[in-house]
Amino acid sequence: MDQQAGLYCRSREVSFSLQLSFSAVLSFMSLASCSEDFENKNYTVITSQCKGPRYSADACCNALKTFACPFADLINDETNNCATTMFSYINLNGRYPPGLFAHMCREGKDGLACPANTTEAGGPAKSSGLASVSTHFPSTTLVAGFSLFLLLQQ
């Protein structure tokens, strides 16, 4: 009897976990498409400076800031998939391990601080204070992607 009760509890935990994962996937799928074309960006600024197998936090995070700060407003907008898309292409182009930037690049609770003079491609300079690039999105992406993988396997 005790073994059956233990199995029952474990199966409830798995069921609960899958329900949460399914919710994360549905939430992820409801995001608006990114208006920036990250597929065709030049990632050389990152891939030329952030090299393994021993990734330097200074080199990688500075390169990420150089690349991502012009898009900070888009990347930090949680209603679109810009952060997910950008990090997917960064990881694809650099063949980086999952979560590399999320684990290394932290300057505070809000992510990386972008300089006030960061400009968008062809756009005006940012005029007020510091923007920030959140590095927390890759974790969300990994959870949602893995959850989708699990759901598709059933």
Tell me about this structure:
With 154 residues, the protein is mainly alpha-helical. It has a domain at 61-113. Helices cover 55% and strands 4% of the residues. The protein has seven helices and two strands; from the N terminus they run ααααααββα. It has helices at 2-29, 44-47, 57-68, 72-76, 82-94, 100-104, 137-153, and strands at residues 112-114, 131-133. Strands 1-2 form a two-stranded antiparallel ribbon. Helix 1 (2-29) packs across helix 7 (137-153) and helix 5 crosses helix 7. The longest helix is centred in the N-terminal third of the chain and has 28 residues, at 2-29. The two termini are 29 Å apart. Residues 37-112 form the GPI-anchored protein LLG1-like domain. InterPro entries: LLG1-like, LORELEI-like. Pfam families: LLG1. It comes from Kalanchoe fedtschenkoi. This is GPI-anchored protein LLG1-like domain-containing protein.
- Spatially, the strands of the biggest sheet line up as 1-2
Oligomer: single chain
Helix content: 40-55%
The ordered H/E elements are HHHHHHEEH
Q: Kindly state the number of beta strands.
A: 2
Q: What's the helix count?
A: 7
Q: Determine the mean pLDDT.
A: 71
How are the elements arranged and paired?
Blueprint: H1 2-29, H2 44-47, H3 57-68, H4 72-76, H5 82-94, H6 100-104, E1 112-114, E2 131-133, H7 137-153
Antiparallel strand pairs: 1-2
Helix pairs in contact: 1-7, 5-7
Protein name: GPI-anchored protein LLG1-like domain-containing protein
InterPro entries: LLG1-like (IPR058888), LORELEI-like (IPR039307)
Organism: Kalanchoe fedtschenkoi
